[in-house]
Amino acid sequence: MSIPSFADIIAPVSEDEFFSEYFDKAPLHVKGKPDKFAYLMSWQALNGILDMTSIWSSLTLGLHLDGEFVKAARYCVSGPDRNDQQGMMPVTGKVHAFLAQGATLVCNKVDRLTPAMSSFAGILEETFECKAQANLYCSWRERKAFDSHFDKHGVWAVQAEGSKRWLIYEGRMDHPIHHDHSETLDKDVHHQARGKVLMDIVMRPGDLLYIPHGQYHDALAMSGGTIHVTFGTFPVIGMDLLTEAYEEAAEFSAFRAPFPRI
């Protein structure tokens, strides 16, 4: 496998065009040849990583059905994980039963499971000077797994197998973060905030989709079986600096002492 560059990933769009017209400004759909990302993921590769049963738990392998996550107790049993810690471990037969109902398989933190995905994540980390993490989504029916939502990170979706329809909306949340400020909104608020459809896209193998953080979107499988891998890019933000300053301040007596009386 030849390790791609960022220029290879977004081609034929140039890096100058991407950073001037799209980065943190607008979504971008890049159509590619069917084999463009064949090195990254395939049905064979997916079966290979799913066969590594000891690496999965309810924290890394989830199911999403009709807009809700399936509770771990419905597809897992209690047992030791690969670190000999007690956890909820997926049962293959129960997982397949939910998939037959139209559930979406969600494999979290897959960016270090294969050299190809690790290299792809590394390219994004080097380009954007941030942390990159990948999740894999697999669906077999035309059923929406997630309601319209925004992500708190940049989204890089790579279509590996099958076709998937994405709706990108005009609405964009202002710099959302993992905090009550961004995580306590109900469905009605989201549906109002998303606005009108900005882009209606069909993703096919070889296609790439970039969505800036905070931009509302949703997706629906269109073929009998579909796989896409989403890489999230997590840049350093001002809140990170405040958190680091808080930890550093705890080392100094002056910051631990009460304020003097006035």
Summarize this, please?
The protein is an alpha+beta fold and 262 residues long.
Tell me about this structure:
This protein starts with 5 loop residues before the first helix and ends in a 6-residue tail after the last helix. The relative contact order is 0.18. It is α+β, with helices and mostly antiparallel strands and 262 residues long. The strands form three sheets. An eight-stranded antiparallel sheet has the order 1-11-8-13-7-6-2-3. It has a three-stranded antiparallel sheet with strand order 10-9-12. It has nine helices and 13 strands.
Helix/strand layout:
Elements: H1 6-10, H2 15-21, E1 28-30, H3 43-50, E2 61-65, E3 68-69, E4 76-80, E5 86-90, H4 92-100, E6 104-107, H5 115-128, E7 131-139, E8 154-161, E9 164-172, H6 180-183, H7 187-194, E10 197-203, E11 208-211, E12 215-221, E13 226-234, H8 238-249, H9 253-256
Antiparallel strand pairs: 1-11, 2-3, 2-6, 4-5, 6-7, 7-13, 8-11, 8-13, 9-10, 9-12
What would the principal axes of the Cα set say about the shape? globular
Percent range for β-strand residues: 25-35%
Determine the N-to-C terminus distance: 68 Å
> Strand order within the widest sheet?
1-11-8-13-7-6-2-3
